[in-house]
Amino acid sequence: MAPVLALVGATGAVGTMMIDILNGRAEWPWGEVRLIASPRSAGKKLTVRGQELTVQALAPEVFDGVDVAMFDVPDEVSAEWAPIAAARGAIAVDNSGAFRMDDQVPLVVPEVNQDKVTTRPRGIIANPNCTTLSMMAAIGALHHAFGLRELVVASYQAASGAGQAGIDRLYAEYAAVSGKQVGTRAGDVREALTAAGLSQEDSPFPAPLAMNVVPWAGSLKEDGWASEELKVRNESRKILGIPDLKVSATCVRVPVVTTHSLAVHATFASPVTVAKAQEIFAGQPSIVLVDDPATGKFPTPADVVGGDPTYVGRIRQALDFPNTLDFFVCGDNLRKGAALNTYEIAESLISTL
Fold it and tell me: Which residues contact 257 (CB under 8 A, 6 or more apart)?
C-alpha cells in the first residue's frame, strides 16, 4: 500500500510553497495526502495533484494511518504536536526550530547526511534553519572531499526570513522612499519612513531596511551574538558531524524579498583548488555553478529566487590562508531553505517505512 503523507500548516506561507512543490514533482509515491491546519483554516479547499482536498483541523486523530507528517508551523505548535504525531505512528519531519538541537532528533540535509534519517528515537526529524541550509549542499560536498576544519560566514538574508511581516514591511518601506532623494545624509531614510507613517517600533527589523543593510537577524544572545549566527554555528556542526568545527558567522538583513546569500570562507584539512571545487560543484545535481566573473556571471538573488537548486560562484583560492576557499552562495530561503528540504526528507523516508 502506498504511504500516506500529511502536511501540517498547509495554509501558511511555507505550506503554500510546499503544495506548489507537491504539484510539481515528476514522481508521486504517495497514496494519500492530508492537509492539516488550525481550526480557523479547517474546511478550506486546496488542490494537490489535480485533486481538491479539504483542510482538516489539527487534532490527534488526523495522524492515524499517516506514515510521514511534515510540519510547517511555529516552534510552539511543532513542540506540542510533532510528538503527538509520532505517538500515533507517523514520522514527523519538522521545519521549525523546536527540535534542531535535540540529541535524539537528527538534523538532516539529504545531500549531506541522508543516512541519519534511520536514527530517530523520538520519531522526529528536523529541518535546518534556512540560512544554514542555503550553504549546506555546497559545504557538504567540499567537506566530503577535503575535510572541513574552519568556517567563517557572512550572510545576506532576505526580508522573507522574518516571515510575511518582513515582506510587508520591506514593500511598505520601498513605497515610502520611492521617487525621493534619500540616502545622501544621515537620517533621511528614517525621515521618509516617519513621514509615511511607518514607525520603527512596528517593524520586524531594528533599523530601516529599504536602501540600507541591517547587521542583525534574530534575537540577542550571550556576548552580543544574534540567534541566527549561533544557529549557523551549531547546526553546521550537527549536520556535518563535526562537533568541534570552528565556525563564526555574521548575519546581515538586506533589502531583498526572497533568497538568502552567503559569503563563505572555508578551510579544509587537505589541499583544495578552485578547479577541483568547480568540478565537485558541477557534479552535484542540486547545485548550479555560475562562476565566470570575467563576463559578469555569478549568483545573485534576483536570478535564483523561485528555483530549487543552490547556486555557487565567485570561487577563489584564499590569498593568505592555506587550504582555504572563498565563494558565494545563493538559495531561495522559502523553497530549498524550508519547504523543499522538508519534502526531500519525507521522500527519503519512504524506503525505510
Answer: 158, 159, 160, 167, 170, 171, 305
Which residue blocks in 178-295 are alpha helix, DSSP H? 188-195, 227-240, 274-282
**Helix, strand, coil % over all residues of the chain, rounded to 5:** 40, 25, 35
Residue 14 confidence (pLDDT) above 90: no
pLDDT digits (tens, 9 = 90+) for 282-323: 999 999 999 999 999 999 999 999 999 999 999 999 999 999
Rounded distance between C-alpha atoms, residue 211 and residue 35, angstroms = 40
Q: Hey, what amino acid is at 107?
A: L
Give the three cell numbers for residue 44: 478550506
Q: What is the dihedral of CA 293, 299, 300, 304, to 10 degrees?
A: 150
Q: What is the pTM of this model?
A: 0.95
Contact 173, 208 (CB under 8 A): yes
Report how far residue 125's alpha carbon sits from residue 116's, in angstroms, rounded to the nearest whole number: 9
d(CA 323, CA 313): 18
Greatest Cα-to-Cα distance within the chain, rounded to the nearest angstrom: 66
* Chain position carrying cell 575535510: 147
Query: Tens digit of pLDDT for each residue in 146-184?
Result: 999 999 999 999 999 998 899 999 999 999 999 888 888
Write out the catalytic residue numbers: 130, 260
